[in-house]
Amino acid sequence: MKIAPSMLASDFTRMGECAKSVSAADWLHLDIMDGHFVPNISFGPDVVKALRPLSDLTFDVHLMISHPKQYIRQFAEAGAEIITFHVECDDDIDETITEIEKYGVKPALSLKPGTPVECLYPYLDRLYMVLVMTVEPGFGGQKFMPSALDKLRWLKAEREKRGLHYLLEVDGGVDDTTAPLCVEAGADVLVAGSAVFGKDDRTAAVRRLAAL
Ligand code: DX5
Ligand code: ZN
After folding, report:
1. Which of 92, 148, 169, 209 holds its CA 20 to 30 A away from the CA of 110?
2. Contact (CB, 8 A) for 45 and 78
């Protein structure tokens, strides 16, 4: 089980210290929002680049933006190791995956709670990971939607059926109570914002989630 604390829940006046405070985790989850694909704006590639030398964690960049393709190079050069974009975006999905691969970055696709999981079907064999949103993307601190668990089960079964190897990541409202449900349904990676950065002892928070 991999734990990916989300920097969206960190103190933006102390992002460097916050990134260092979660060194017990596996990945660092970086939420990019454009105020168009979602009704919120977060931070861009320059912030990712500034954090890169401060952390040894795998940089897991989650693009909640309408036109991801034109920004892939910038995020790759900023140090992204995994780039997730949304199947609901306005760019061509296959072309965007190809663009991610071009920079040696691992491609992943995500879907919103209201999007049927079958929309991912044509792309699964090209993906390093699928990110199942367990809240409506845009904001941290929302309530977990258990309806997403069926998507995890479907994706896990499909992976076995087709002999594929993509990881399953969940994002939104993951805490000590909801994490076991995700694990049971097939999650390999847990994104946690508030459940990690909301705690004083981040190492303990990460270890507790990893142990569930
Ligand atoms: C939501 C983001 C999440 C968010 C998770 O749009 O993609 O990564 O930061 O925050 P919590 O864990 O607080 O729900
Ligand atoms: Zn995210």
Report:
1. 209
2. yes
Backbone φ/ψ region at 104: left (φ over 0), alpha (ψ -120 to 50), beta: left
State pTM to two decimals: 0.98
Classify the C-alpha dihedral 179-63-35-43 as positive or negative: positive
Centre of ligand 2 to C-alpha 155, Å, is 19
Q: State pLDDT tens for residues 95-144.
A: 999 999 999 999 999 999 999 999 999 999 999 999 999 999 999 999 99
CB burial of residue 37 (10 Å; 0-12, 13-18, 19+): buried
User: Strand 2-5's sheet: what is its strand order?
Assistant: 2-5, 189-192, 167-171, 129-133, 106-111, 82-86, 58-64, 27-33
Residue 113 and residue 133 in contact, taking contact as beta carbons nearer than 8 Å: yes
